[in-house]
Predict the structure.
Amino acid sequence: MNVLALHKLSVGHPGHPPVLSGLSMQMRAGEHVGLVGPNGAGKTSLFHTIAAVLPAQAGSAEVRGRAVRAGHFDTDIALVFQQAEDQLFCPTLFEDVAFGPRNMGLPEPEVQARVAQALAACGLTGLEDRPVHHLSGGEKRRACIAGALVMQPALMLLDEPSAALDLRNRRRLIALLAGMDQALLIASHDLELVLELCPRVVLIDEGRICADGPARAVLGDTALMAAHGQEVPHSLTPHDGTGHRHVRSFP
Ligand SMILES: Nc1ncnc2c1ncn2[C@@H]1O[C@H](COP(=O)(O)OP(=O)(O)OP(=O)(O)O)[C@@H](O)[C@H]1O
Ligand SMILES: [Mg+2]
């Protein structure tokens, strides 16, 4: 069964014209897909619609065969917000990560075990009692990821997961996500991260899906990338023996 199916979905904000229209795509269970596109293309808006935060303007989204209804949150989906401050709201890190499992009504020993596991996976063990507003930017981002992991969702929506991470924590995040059995939809401008994690990439721009295919074919297509304000990632850029020979899309 598909973990996610979009049928002619239109995404937008109340009182405004649609940001994205007529989107149709599916994701299989366990599939890792990159979502790329320029600033304002609608990646975050799409995530908010799939996560039932924002109502669809037309069409539908289904998660494991169940229609998404705005305001009805499905524990099969976890969203890692682009802005950590939009996600973290409890007094301490522990309480924040424990919020979802407690809300699901899990027994307290299971809550404790899941939180410990999620914090360890995100390198946050020892910071349990830290007020969330005293975490560093990168720690906040990892706290958001822990808050999604702890739900053990079938589909994780990760909105710019590597933003604000240092190299070691970016690498740790890539290793963590690469080992996940769950389906991942990863919106990112970090195209090297997308290449490492996602065999498939969806490119959105101008209100629609412009490409949906193998990551190396989509991200390596110089003309396609340039047409949508993107640049072929460094690792897919041809090099010769004497040094770099990049074809730059922009001056
Ligand atoms: N609450 C809102 N009300 C009206 N318009 C909004 C709202 N939030 C976002 N938009 C608009 O919707 C469009 C898509 O924004 P969105 O945040 O989804 O883009 P994005 O692809 O995530 O961009 P970025 O790469 O900068 O994160 C933009 O034109 C933005 O200005
Ligand atoms: Mg965004």
In short: The longest helix spans residues 108-121. The chain has two domains: 2-76+153-244, 87-152.
